[in-house]
Amino acid sequence: MILIDYSQVAVAGILAFSADIKKNKDASEKKNLIRHVVLSSIKSYKKKYGNEYGQIVIACDGRNYWRKDFFANYKGLRKKARDESDLDWKIIFETLNEIREDLKEHFKYKVIHVDRAEADDVIAVLAESTQEFGKYEPVMIVSSDKDFKQLHAHDNVKQFSPMLKKLITIKSKKELHAWLIEHIVKGDSGDGIPNILSPDNTLMEGVRQKPVSSKRLQDFIDNGFIACKTEEERRNWQRNATLVDFKYIPEEVKNTILDAFEVEPKGNKMAIMNYLIKHKCRLLLDDIEEF
Q1: Largest CB tally within 10 Å, which of 48, 61, 234, 274?
Q2: Do 54 and 1 touch, CB atoms closer than 8 A?
Q3: How far apart, in Å, are the Cα atoms of 33 and each of 11, 20, 21, 281?
Q4: Beta carbons within 10 angstroms of residue 138's beta carbon
Q5: pLDDT at residue 136, rounded to an integer
Q6: Are residues 58 and 111 in contact, defined by beta-carbon separation less than 8 angstroms?
Q7: What pLDDT is attached to residue 193?
Q8: DSSP structure string for 83-119
Q9: Which residue in 32, 42, 41 sits closest to 95, CA to CA?
Q10: What is residue 162's three-state secondary structure?
Q11: Those residues with Cβ within 8 angstroms of residue 86's Cβ, 6 or more apart along the chain or in another chain
């Protein structure tokens, strides 16, 4: 199974061709270029890993993330970063939403897009599902997201980073344990999660976080939750663990993802060909067998 982090892989491709996209003034042509970039990326991973890892699964971000319900500031800084960019994110997201639905309708891939679940949840749940008796199969995660290191605990799971253009590896279970504890303790500024020594609104308000010393970090790695010294630290540990540790994904979200995975793809070769012609992706027609 090849688990593709849809938005991350798509945006990585778009950024690589951002100059071409920006200089194209016609909205329709701009959209078709974005389509070409995204489909080319997916096709390349099918070609690279299909023989060894099998079917492609497109993992998408749904609406109303459960983490946002749990922690209001979750990913709260993303919009500010986009507003400061010179790319037209409105048309990019509009096009990515259209492509996601087109992949469901015309292509031979399973596309998982369910309410309350992020692509992270989809990938984590499906990778974990391969550990069930009789379902063990090789899994390749295509994403640069460091959170997926958690899944490297399973011998059948590998991860390719489009950003680094190489496999991400964990040398030992000890290293994995230390990484996860550090991730909980230090939080994730990219997702708006402060470290456990800092209040919820720290990053959103641009306040400097209270630093975690190397001595304290080692204490947390050695002793885990019991190394927390105050009620606030214990509360913030639970906040961060819930947001970053996949074992906290709610059962109802897991079940929704597994149900969506059972839906068979609709697409076929003729549907793909007609789609590529309609959207002027003629360069991809020569490689139609690779989809």
Answers
A1: 61
A2: yes
A3: 13, 8, 7, 8
A4: 15
A5: 80
A6: yes
A7: 96
A8: HTSSS-HHHHHHHHHHHHHHHHHHSSSEEE--TT--H
A9: 32
A10: coil
A11: 22
> Quick check: 76 and 192 in contact, CB under 8 A?
yes
Residue found under tokens 């199969």: 137
Task: Supply 121's token pair.
Answer: 């949840």
What are 53-75's pLDDT values in tens digits?
999 999 999 999 999 999 999 99
Bridge partners of residue 5, in order along the sequence: 59
Class of residue 95 by CB neighbours under 10 A (exposed 0-12, middle 13-18, buried 19+):
buried
The distance from CA 158 to its chain's CA centroid, rounded to whole angstroms, is 15
Distance, CA of 103 to CA of 199 (rounded, Å): 41
Collapse the DSSP code of 72 into the 3-class scheme (helix H, G, I; strand E, B; otherwise coil) and give the result: coil
CA distance 145 to 97: 21
Average pLDDT rounded to a whole number, residues 75-96: 84
Tell me the three state secondary structure of residue 86.
coil
